[in-house]
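>> received
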Amino acid sequence: MKPSDRTDRARHLRQEQTEAERKLWSIVRGRKLSGYKFRRQVPIDRYIADFVCLDARLVVELDGGHHSEQADYDAGRTEVLEACGFRVIRFWNREILNRQSVVGDTILRELLTSR
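>> returned
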């Protein structure tokens, strides 16, 4: 996929968020976690990362039910993102929907360990 295609795809994904993505965005947007800025649907290498804090070099990925069937793909994706200098943490959609405060606390801990 060409860079311009990835950018167009990222824009589309930002407009068509899932419920879990909307919930996570409400947790991290507006520098709510110790002043760290997050962006959503960010092209990195050949992938589009769900949520990224560039300052902390942290990628937060959300996994729906179909991800249990694509573990190899996700592992390869994580490997590429890590090779680009990012740490990657993953949450299941149901974690975001049912345990928002725990997810927020976990992300904050990851951010603070990057200092």
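>> The helical segments are 3-15, 19-28, 71-83, 93-98, 100-113.
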